[in-house]
Amino acid sequence: MKQKFAQAVRILTTPPVFSALMCTLLYVLVPGSFASLGHYLLAIVCLSLLPVLAYPVSYLIPALRRGGRKTQRNLALVFSVLGYLIGFLAAVLDDGAAMEKVVFGTYLISGTTLAVCTLLHFKASGHTCGCSGPIAALSIFINPWFLVGYVLLTPIIWSSIRLKRHTALQLLAGCVIPVLAMLICRAQFL
Fold first, then answer.
1. Which helix (H) or strand (E) holds 184?
2. What is the pLDDT of residues 143-190, one digit of tens each?
3. What distance separates the 2 farthest-apart alpha carbons in the chain?
4. Quick one: DSSP state of residue 166?
5. CA–centroid distance for 105 within its chain
C-alpha cells in the first residue's frame, strides 16, 4: 500500500504540473510577465507538454521501452532540455519579457545541469528540481508566502526515497540547482 501511495505522490507532483501552475500564476498575477498570450502558451508547451511527451514516446517505440526506467529518464531529460532551449531562444529572439527570459533561462540551466550530472553518474533529482524552481520563482516574483510550497517537497522526498529513486544528496541537489540557476538568470535579465 505504501508503494502505491508513493507512486501516486510522484505522479501527482510531476514537474510539468508545477511549471504549468507557475506560468499560469505569473501570467495572471504579474502583468507583463510574458510578452503576449502566445508567449505564455509557448511556455506551457515548452515547459509542460514537451517534457511529458517523452513518456508516450518511450512507450510507443519498442527499443526505448526495452531500455526501461533509465532510458525513459534520459529521454525525458532530452525532451525537457529541448523544450527549454526552444522556449529560451523564442523569448530571446522574439522580444520576450524579462521574466520569461528568467524562467526559460532557469529551466535551461537547470535541465542542462541535470543532464551533465546524469552523464557524470550522479542522478540529481529532476523531480525535486522541477518542483523547487517554480516554488522559488513564485516566492520571488509574486509573494514570499509561496515559500510555504516547500512543504510540498516533503511527500515528494519521502516517495523518492521509498521507491529508491534517489538518495538524500540527489534530492537536495535537485532542490538547490534551480534556485542557483534562477539567481544567475535574475541577475542577467532583470
1. helix 168-189
2. 999 999 999 899 999 999 999 999 999 999 999 999 999 999 999 998
3. 50
4. -
5. 12
